[in-house]
């Protein structure tokens, strides 16, 4: 398939609103996790109760989830950026096909290397979106949730998602892909939902040294300045340990950002506000 053909097939995929596979994927994974959480924490603390109460920052989370369910999130992301970052990501991918994965012996090891490299890439891109002021203005939108309702996982600014695509292709541009890799995305998604849920467990030594626990991600979303830029790992907490950004979980944590400008004037206003704050910071940095 040549470059133009690939862009064409991507466009067809993007315009496929009401795609039953996408719809089923989101409803099954998030729905399943919502039920599991309900059974563990009970109705009063559950994300489902928060979703049905439809208050405060939860409204935005539900709206973003629905955009994903109906396959509209990606379409809006492309439209708002004129597809520039998608094309850039594709160019990076096409120009650097090193297929290093085939230098690694055996599928299990190939899988492990790719998974670890993808997670390191997630840590690095997350770090960049925290530490570059203009980019933080976009990522701040994810952090502006003042409570977790599991669907907070889907609250993310379109421009951030578009830019991150360029990061996302790097591991695959270097290593190439393996078919079985997709199988793990459901597990990663379930983990991400758990991180934005009513669970507050620190997962003991696993949460201290191996995986990001719900309690550790609460620190990441804390509104207290002593917690800023801590626990930026996606799946493994190991990166935070290695690069000195780990902060142990604490009991009571207020979620949100300093002087939270979000969740007051509606979704559209919040998205535009993040854009404005991004361009203002970009101008100031020159
Ligand atoms: Zn963050
Ligand atoms: Zn988060």
Task: Provide the fold topology.
Blueprint: H1 3-14, H2 20-41, H3 47-53, H4 58-69, H5 73-81, H6 84-95, H7 107-131, H8 133-143, H9 158-168, H10 170-175, H11 183-195, H12 204-209, H13 214-220, H14 238-243, H15 267-284
Bound molecules: zinc ion (2 copies).
What can you see in these coordinates?
- There is one protein chain.
- The chain is 62% helix and 0% strand.
- It starts with a helix and ends with a helix.
- One zinc ion binds next to loops.
Q: Rg from C-alpha positions?
A: 19 Å
Q: How many strands, which pairing sense, and closed or not: the largest β-sheet? A: none
Query: What count of structural domains?
Result: 1
- State the helicity in percent bands: 55-70%
Instruction: Give the H and E element order.
Output: HHHHHHHHHHHHHHH
Heteromolecules bound:
zinc ion
Q: Count helical runs.
A: 15
Distance between the termini: 41 Å
Overall 3D geometry?
Answer: globular
* Structural classification: mainly alpha
Q: Approximately what portion of the residues adopt beta-strand conformation?
A: under 5%
What is the arithmetic mean of pLDDT? 92
Low-confidence stretches: none
